[in-house]
Amino acid sequence: MQQEYNNFQAKGIDLIIIFPQKRSIVEKFAKKNQFNMTLLVDEDRSVIKSFDVFHLIGIDAFRIARPSVFFINAEGKVAFAYIGKNQKDRLSINELNMQIEKETGKN
């Protein structure tokens, strides 16, 4: 993930990962995985609720966010959104790179 983040930064794209968990858990995870990117701690889940990706309860989830990607352009508008149907439904790096190229013209 860190290598992909570095590739995004080289294209002028910032990545923010939202963690709807306690700060202590996020800090431990970030340190263990050596994340050097922007992490937003959303303990009260207000951010994931505002993006309508909060998943209260299901077979594969309890009070977490659906896997999601939002591409917000320079004007602050959502230019692309992907919201997974379940916890295993995630946008691949290749699909994300294709969307970035489509939105920015950068490959």
From TrEMBL:
InterPro entries: AhpC/TSA, Thioredoxin-like_sf. The keyword Protease does not apply. One of its GO terms (molecular function) is antioxidant activity. Keywords: Disulfide bond. Residues 1-80 form the Alkyl hydroperoxide reductase subunit C/ Thiol specific antioxidant domain. It holds the Pfam family AhpC-TSA. This is Alkyl hydroperoxide reductase subunit C/ Thiol specific antioxidant domain-containing protein.
